[in-house]
Design goal:
Radius of gyration: 27 Å
Largest sheet: 9 strands, antiparallel
Structural class: alpha+beta
Number of domains: 3
Shape: globular
Helix content: 25-40%
Number of strands: 36
Distance between the termini: 37 Å
CATH architecture of the largest domain: Alpha/alpha barrel
CATH class of the largest domain: Mainly Alpha
Strand content: 25-35%
Length: 711
């Protein structure tokens, strides 16, 4: 890989290292991004007083050549010295493993340091030198610890953080640290090596924040790891004692995504996106013992923004669905009422370390209500448990009342509260009344609510939803279809567009209509994906939807994906592009642009602005963003997977792959408790002029009505 800015974190524990080679540093903290301080991380070679190091220090010259590699659980950098004929490699190992809370949240990195002779014919035999690791961090007290390593004490957002570092050499011997003010020499050891990599040391680096870290409506939250570990030293001791098992599980998780069927570009993208997602997670416990989970919205730092989670929920569905259920419960306590007296879901639950109320000043009434219903449907279908739905009966009714009640013209398309998440777009895309995007999303959300009425035993709710779905569908075809695509909006008037009571009037075109009302846009189909993934067919003209998707794809395509529309090239959102791609895969329209998305991330983090996963191409800079996790929807969409564990006849799973031959590891159905994990794989191939399909290790799917259909 290109040497680029990257990040690695411990899930839910906020402990991370943000590698910034261009700036010659690592940003590091036990409380995570935006509470970080620069760490001078000098790992290098000393030969008779001449020194070269990896590009994470400003104290020494850097190796002339540096290389990088990344997996789901690791980031490694290697530096090649042409003068010393040696190569040094450092690998930071995390240990995420699905549903394994103790392992995944363990706040310790296992850091491997290796050296070898550089590949060369100039010099035969062994080479000698000293390999060192020296660290320095401002505002940090450094003392020697009982294990022979060092302890770092510092503040992050007024909270006390303690890091514990122990270096272990060959034969499991502790390498004693040498401590100075605000810095330490973690190791300084001689080497004599040939062509093969030689292990020099393993550094166990732990971190710990005691006491509450979040203030929420439900009470104060402490990190999940504090239930098992009362200090960083305890966490490091545990990691050292269980190193073999930790490495084994972490490697097993990595291996799933190294399958050649995933592809190198997609594997690199997903690993990069996964790490940006991990460093945004907060996992902890309330005083009453209930679990707390939320995810920061990257650089915006809002907690669990519904429209962001709407895109990235595939991460949960692949690895930890129960966390999505926690979110649905937490969100249910965050609602507001509009000027019509109708209830809508808040955009977010708070920001930074305070989770008490929506902090974003821009409500997205229609959008967030629709998002909530669609996510609730998906969670119910995945789990097959009516108890997910029944406690929310009153809330579901209020959301349906809102979605029907804000459509004031008789079209069924919402006219109030239509300002949406696309907050860097042109007025037509973001503010228009009677948007096609929100019309279709409302239709899909009400179809979801109609399905949710079954476990609620509420035929009146079902009837109301179906009637409104039919009305919206008729309006869509009669008024929004314009030859080869759907218009952005059917209300073309540019005057008095409303954003939470603030009137916004853009410069109208000559005839008084809003510019771009008739453009091609990727957002038309956005509400469909969770219906398709849960076994429901959206009540839309699917052939027209496919035509719209195809023409809009070509009309608004840029170098790294589709812009908001054919007339609005202000920005492009990768997550929204991927979401659209996956709908296309379900419908048999193959749009697969991971090469474009990965090209953007590598460019942004080498020659661009940086920020690890950046979701936006254009002037907007949504950085350190979790939304790259949208990419895990590929494992559903490419397989055409639909899950309905709440089906009347019993749990059902179907697959409708859109291409052959194809191989898709079904990571969402892996038996992670098996040793090694059992990975079902969907395969299609062509034999005798016909398409065949099979699933390897299908038993991992459980007792279900299993169907494979070839389109």
């Amino acid at each position: 890989m290109n040497v680029m800015e990257s990040i690695i974190g411990i899930f839910g524990s906020r402990f991370e290292f943000n590698f910034r080679p261009r700036e010659g540093k690592i940003d590091q903290s036990g409380l995570g991004r935006f509470y970080d301080e620069p760490l001078d991380f000098a790992l290098g070679i000393d030969v008779d007083g001449d020194v070269e190091a990896l590009p994470f220090t400003k104290r020494h010259a850097h190796f002339p050549s540096t290389f990088m590699a990344q997996t789901m659980n690791t980031v490694s950098y290697s530096g090649l010295s042409t003068e010393f004929l040696a190569e040094v490699r450092v690998t930071f190992n995390a240990h995420f493993y699905p549903k394994d809370e103790l392992l995944s949240t363990l706040p310790v990195f296992i850091i491997d340091i290796e050296v070898r002779k550089a590949p060369t014919r100039v010099f035969a035999g062994d080479i000698d030198g000293h390999l060192f690791l020296r660290i320095a961090r401002k505002g940090t007290t450094v003392v020697q610890n009982k294990a022979g390593g060092c302890t770092l004490s510092y503040k992050a957002d007024s909270l006390q953080v303690q890091d514990e570092i122990v270096a272990i050499g060959n034969e499991k011997k502790v390498i004693g640290a040498k401590v100075e003010e605000n810095s330490a020499t973690v190791l300084d050891v001689p080497y004599s090596v040939n062509e093969q990599w030689v292990h020099v040391a393993t550094v166990f680096w732990g971190s710990h924040v005691a006491g509450p870290v979040l203030e929420t409506k439900r009470g104060k939250v402490e990190f999940a790891y504090t239930r098992a570990f009362k200090s960083a030293a305890e966490a490091v001791t545990y990691a050292m004692a269980n190193e073999e098992q930790i490495r084994k599980k972490a490697a097993a998780f990595d291996k799933v995504f190294l399958d050649p069927a995933v592809g190198k570009t997609r594997a690199d993208f997903l690993a990069f996106a996964h790490q940006s997602f991990v460093q945004n997670a907060w996992l902890g416990y309330l005083p009453d013992g209930r679990k707390w989970y939320s995810s920061w919205e990257g650089s915006c730092q809002f907690h669990s923004t519904i429209d962001v989670e709407y895109n990235q929920a595939w991460w949960y569905y692949c690895f930890w669905p129960e966390l999505a259920e926690v979110l649905l419960d937490e969100w249910s306590e965050f609602t507001e009422t509009n000027k019509l007296g109708l209830t809508y879901m808040c955009h977010d639950m708070g920001s930074r370390r305070t989770v008490l109320e929506q902090m974003y000043p821009h409500p997205m009434e229609v959008e967030e209500n629709a998002n909530y219903l669609l996510l609730l449907l998906m969670q119910w279908k995945l789990a097959g448990n009516d108890s997910i739905v029944k406690p929310k009966q009153a809330l579901i009714g209020k959301i349906v009342d809102h979605l029907i009640g804000v459509a004031l013209t008789g079209s069924g398309f919402p006219t109030e509260g239509t300002a949406n998440t696309i907050d860097d777009a042109s007025p037509a895309i973001q503010y228009a009344r009677e948007q096609t995007y929100l019309g279709v999303k409302t239709l899909c959300a009400l179809q979801a609510a109609s399905a949710l009425a079954k476990p609620l035993e509420d035929p009146a709710l079902e009837k109301r939803c179906k009637a409104q779905v039919a009305l919206i569908g008729k309006t869509l075809e009669d008024r929004a279809w314009i030859g080869d695509h759907y218009a952005v909006c059917i209300d073309k008037d540019a005057k008095g567009l409303n954003d939470d009571g603030h009137i916004f009037t853009p410069s109208p075109s000559k005839d008084g209509t809003i510019e771009g009302w008739d453009a091609y846009t990727l957002y038309t189909s956005n509400g469909m994906l969770y219906l398709l993934a849960s076994g429901l067919v959206p009540e839309l003209d699917i052939q027209r939807i496919k035509t719209d998707m195809g023409t809009a794809w070509r009309a608004s395509l840029g170098p790294y994906g589709n812009f908001h529309s054919s007339t609005d090239h202000s920005n492009a959102w990768l997550s929204q592009n991927m979401h659209r791609d996956f709908i296309g895969m379900y419908l048999g329209l193959l749009i697969d642009q991971f090469d474009r998305y990965w090209s953007f991330e590598t460019w942004e983090n080498t020659g661009g602005r940086g920020g690890c996963f950046v979701d936006t191409y254009g002037h907007n800079h949504l950085r350190y963003y979790p939304r790259g996790a949208t990419g895990f929807g590929w494992f559903f969409a490419m397989a055409g997977a639909s899950v309905d564990r709440a089906a009347p006849g019993g749990p059902a799973i179907s697959f409708r792959p859109c291409i052959a031959p194809v191989t898709v590891p079904l990571v969402q159905f892996v038996d992670w408790e098996a040793d090694p994990p059992r990975i079902p794989v969907l395969r299609t191939w062509i034999e005798g002029g016909e398409v065949r399909a099979a699933i390897d290790h299908a038993a991992s799917l459980g007792e279900v009505d299993l169907r494979i259909e070839i389109k």
